[in-house]
Amino acid sequence: MAVESEAEGAGEAPRDVRVLTLNHGEHLDSTLFRFERGCRLQFSPGTSLLGRKVFLYTNYVPDGAEGEAEFVRNQYYALEWRCGGAAAGAGLLVADDEAHCELRLARAGSFHYYFVYDSAESRVGPQGSGWFHVAPALGVPLDGVMCQTVLAKCLGPLARWPGVLRVAREAGYNALHFTPVQARGASDSAYSIADQLRVDPRFGAAGAPPPGFDDVRAALDAVRADWQVLCISDVVLNHTANETPWLAEHPEATYNCHNCPHLRPAALLDALLARLGADVARGALEPGVPRRVCAHDHVQALRGELAARVAAARLHELWACDAAAVERRFRALAAARPPPPARAPAAAPLRLLADAQRRRGAAGVDLELALQLYNVHRPECADEEARLDSACAELRRCLERLNAEVEAEVRAHLAAAVDNCVAGMRYERLQADGPRVAEVSAAHPLVPRYFAWPPVDSAAEAEALVYGPRGRLVQAHNGWVMDADPLQDFAAPERDGRVYLRRELVAWGDSVKLRYGARPEDCAFLWAHMRRYVELTAELFDGVRLDNCHSTPLHVAEYMLDCARRVRPELYVLAELFTNSDQVDNVFVNRLGISSLVREAQAAWDARELGRLLHRFGGRPVGAFAPRRAAAPAVAHALLLDLTHDNPSPLRRRCVFDLLPTAALVAAASCASGSTRGYDELVPHAVHVVDEARLYAEWGEAEAPGRVGARAGLLAARRALNELHAELAGAGYSEVYVDQVDDDVIAVTRHDPVSRKSVILVAVTAFSAPEPACAGRAAPPLRFEGRLDEIVLEAVLRHRDHESTGRAFEPPGAFARHPQFITGLSEYRAELRRAVPLEESRVFAGARRDGALTELAFRALLPGTVAALRVAPGAGAARALERLRRLAAPGALALAPALAPLDLPDFHTLLYCCDAEERERGGGAVYDVPGHGPLAYAGLQGVAALLQDVAARDELGHALCANLRAGDWLARYTWRRLEAEPRLAPVAARYRAALEPLEDLPRFLVPTYFEAVLSALFDAVSGAALARLGGAARGGPAARALALTSVQLTGRVPSARLPPPAPGAAPSLSAGLPHFAVGHMRCWGRDTFIALRGLFLLTGRYDDARHHILAYGACLRHGLIPNLLDGGRHARYNCRDAVWWWLRAIRQYCAEAPRGPALLAAAVPRLWPRDDAAPAPPGSADQPLHDVMQEALDVHFQGLVFRERGAGRQIDAHMADRGFDVQIGVDPDTGFPFGGNDANCGTWMDKMGSSDRAGTRGRPATPRDGSAVELVALCYDTVTWLAAQHRAGRYPYPGVARRHRDGALTAWTWAQWAERLRRNFERHFWVPAAPSAADARPDLVHRRAIYKDSHGAARPWADYQLRCNFAVAMAVAPDLFDAQHAWAALDSVRRLLRGPLGLKTLDPADWAYRPNYDNADDSADPAVAHGFNYHQGPEWVWPLTFYLRARLALAPAAERAAAAADALAALGPLLAELRASPWRGLPELTDAAGARCPGSCRSQAWSSAGALELLRDLADARRARALPD
Question: For this structure, is 550 an active site residue?
Answer without folding.
Answer: yes
